[in-house]
Amino acid sequence: MSDHSPIVLQRDRHLKWRAFDALELVLMVLCGVAIAGFSLSVGLDIVTRTLGVPWLWLQEVTSAFFIYGAFFGLAVATRRADHLMLSAITEAMPGTVRLVVEIFNRLVVLACGLCMVWFGWENFLHGFGSFRMPSLTPLAWWYLAIPISGAFVCLFVVEQLVNGWRNGFPAPVPQVDRDEEGFHV
Question: Structure pTM?
Fold first, then answer.
């Protein structure tokens, strides 16, 4: 089976399980749908207001696309290590120091993910007492994005911790073929 996945950079493969590649792809597609839906709903909101016949429910749709897109994007960024992980600093560190800092960084992100799950679930449960106007939809459905995203963040951080512990956090240095004079072949 090929080691190549269109969604995973080869330099990061050592930190990722193939089983989660499809999940990352689904989350990325959902982010794209959310961005497109957000853009379309904002455009329609502007047009309908300009024409003097506003569709008030569009603001609810816009906020839902924005919230779910942002929180699913957070989960994808965690798997791709495209979030606030001070990577420039850690990449300059040698050996054991780097290992400790890489693990610490991920434990901080894991703690944030666990808080998102716990407190996001609390918000979700309490959200059934507040409603969006004009549809009277419980705010809980907007809050649900938080614990879902937090669960994905936790899953992806555990994936990185286990694989980083096993394979090392730095990307493997690619081997370059050279001839006798030292030139690339």
Answer: 0.83
